[in-house]
Predict the structure.
Amino acid sequence: MGTLTNKRILLGVTGGIAAYKSADAVRRLREAGAEVRVIMTAGATEFITALTLQAVSGHPVYQHMFDTGAEAGDVQGRTSAAGGRMPRAAMEHIDLARWADIVLVAPASANFLARLAQGRADDLLTTVCLATEVPVAVAPAMNQQMWSNAATQSNLAMLKKNGISIFGPAEGSQACGEVGPGRMLEPADLVKLVSDLFTTGELDGLTMIVTAGPTWETIDPVRGLTNRSSGKMGYAVAEAAVEAGARVILISGPTSLPDPARVQTIRVESAQEMYDAVHAHVRATNIFIGVAAVADYRPAQKAGNKIKKTDETMTLELTRNPDILASVAALKPAPFTVGFAAETEDLEQQARQKLKNKNLDLVAANRVGPGLGFGTDESSLLLVEHETVTELPIQPKTKLARALIHHIAARYRAKKFATVHVLRRP
Ligand SMILES: Cc1cc2nc3c(=O)[nH]c(=O)nc-3n(C[C@H](O)[C@H](O)[C@H](O)COP(=O)(O)O)c2cc1C
């Protein structure tokens, strides 16, 4: 697992000599865990073929804004390959803009920088850059005179002012034989800079526990009670917290997901094991987020051998599991405690009940049911707090997790500041 796991990167390639490095950039971004789609300008196709970038990215390359036949024809293939929300026919500029977590243009020609600075939308790439709300980064590459030209420099100043990240360029010998600034950064440097863009630092220096997945309550050696949680949301929350700078301990029930990068993952099975693992680490924790779908009950007895079929009916006696969330919120001092509530009805009311009963700081509620919540790649959340309710609309769980972490970081800081303030009052 790399530093860009689950990130969706839209790579724009424009017409410069350094376009030959774009293929290596795609490969390295994918090695770092990202899913990469490529848009080429007409100029770029003079330097590198779409076939090469299609081969290394594993997806058809986008080139034309008005090529309705091609858009309609390959949308279905992309939909299944992406496994998520992907372009509808003839609206690629909008759907690609929404699909991406970041747009990286490498190499970015002088001509492209000029068009971007002016806010032009005269090809697919510039249109997507205008239509997206995610970060846009450019890696300029050009002859050193073109780079130093006052027009290029004033375009760059405009781009910086508009919030565009400028990666490089490096100095050195150039393809034209001159020496100076204008070389595109190496693909490995671009991967590092893209990774850094996802790092917010909002939770720097803080420790967080995230629980995720279902629990498994053993009935006998081959059977157990569990639920439909896939762990996707909890894992996405853990990853988003790492990006925000936290040290994260992920305590996970049984899932088929790999351990996230840069996260200390502890695997458990039952609710009791999850409770024990949480309490072994929670004392040094600033924030606790209980995303796991923990079984409320477990079989009163675990059979040592496989239970045989005998009577027409059978009764399984269940006993209550410890309430992990409530036990964490009751600690003195307690970490900032966030619970998840998966409900089929009365979302806000149920969440508010849970908030009060367990004395939590925040409940993130989501609706579950056929096609909603468990196992899906997209979800929405209602963030219920004592004074406020905030809605995070439907979006990929990775983006949703980042929005949630951003919200929690702000609330954590506000609560900490309020506490310090009260303590210092004479
Ligand atoms: C051989 C050759 C190499 C070029 N290399 C660069 C380059 O490295 N950087 C650049 O900004 N323009 C370069 N250009 C000029 C661009 O290809 C030209 O401005 C083109 O219109 C860019 O189109 P685009 O920005 O839409 O991709 C080069 C042109 C040629 C003929």
